[in-house]
Design brief:
This protein is an alpha+beta fold. The protein folds into two domains: 53 residues, no CATH class; 217 residues, Fumarylacetoacetate hydrolase, domain 2 (Alpha-Beta Complex), CATH 3.90.850. The protein has seven helices and 17 strands. Strand 9 and strand 10 form a beta hairpin. Helix 3 packs antiparallel against helix 4. The longest helix has 11 residues. The protein starts with a strand and ends in an 8-residue tail after the last strand.
Length: 283
């Protein structure tokens, strides 16, 4: 089942039919004792809604914080080492890739997150910006993975490469994160064969495309979630981006007007346009 958040309420999709989710808001759904069973009961007892097609999709988030894991794919390790070698930080990334403890960092508050069809931003003070397509976990307040979505962890590679301590500025800014288009509601691990694909269009033409699978993810999603909830509480639950295995070539940088498409089967496609400039241009 898939959970969609729209301008006219929440919907659950099953077998190509959409059913309106009554009463509970997104935060209450995330905190439900058994979200899967609750949504299954709605599907079995309900009548398909006729108004979903006209609804405007919104970012599937309530009051949850978004966190991220870094250097969880070998490709990411290599890219981070290369971009920071002049700053003496290359060894840090090799060590964290091999360490028992993962790299976890805060990514976004709900107001900074872009949804499907809205804009992501590149910093005006960055010269080398890339998207990072990532499987993203939805974790309930009890630390249990209850769903998955597609995520885009926008990154300013030149800022982080200048000094690893600049990571918050490279990663955390308005519309530096996108989630959607829905939540695949499931407590079961996704197969290692699950594909993650990205395509970047410029002027209608593809300028970069690539793919990987979860088989390349070094760490188990459940282990990442467990580390996030160590010594930390999330009363509304949390999202956790699990890292990227796709890094564009060093001569590529995003430009205003680019369109980013991230597809994770069976979740769907997250599509966002790139803007740069005044924050008022992000909506």
């Amino acid at each position: 089942m898939k959970l969609y958040r729209t301008g006219s309420g929440n919907f659950v999709e099953d077998g190509g039919n959409y059913f309106r989710v009554p009463e509970l808001n997104f935060d209450a759904l995330v905190g439900h004792e058994d979200l899967g069973a609750y949504l299954r009961a709605i599907v079995e007892a309900g009548t398909p809604a006729a108004d979903f097609a006209q609804a405007r999709l919104e970012v599937p988030i309530g009051s949850q914080e978004v966190w991220a894991a870094g250097v969880t794919y070998f490709r990411s390790r290599s890219a981070r080492m290369a971009e920071s070698k002049d700053a003496g930080g290359g060894d840090f990334y090799d060590r964290v890739y091999s360490a028992e403890r993962p790299e976890l960092f805060f990514k976004a508050t709900p107001s900074r997150v872009a949804g499907p069809g809205s804009n992501v931003r590149i910093r005006v003070d960055a010269k080398w910006s890339v998207p990072e397509p990532e499987l993203t976990l939805l974790i309930n307040p009890r630390g249990q993975i209850i769903g998955y979505t597609a995520g885009n962890d926008m990154s300013s590679r030149d800022i982080e490469g200048e000094n690893p301590l600049y990571l918050p500025q490279a990663k955390v800014y308005d519309r530096s994160c996108a989630l959607g288009p829905c939540i695949l509601v499931s407590s079961d691990p996704l197969p290692s064969t699950t594909p993650i694909q990205i395509e970047i269009l410029r002027g209608g033409n593809a300028v970069f495309s690539s793919a990987t699978t979860l088989a390349e993810l070094k760490r188990k999603p459940a282990d990442l979630a467990a580390y996030l909830f160590r010594e930390n509480t999330f009363p509304f639950g949390a999202f956790l981006m699990t890292g990227t295995g796709i890094v564009p070539p060093d001569d590529f940088t995003l430009a205003p007007g680019d369109k980013i498409r991230i597809t994770i089967d069976p979740i769907g496609t997250l599509e966002n346009d790139v803007v740069q400039g005044p924050l008022g241009s992000t909506v």
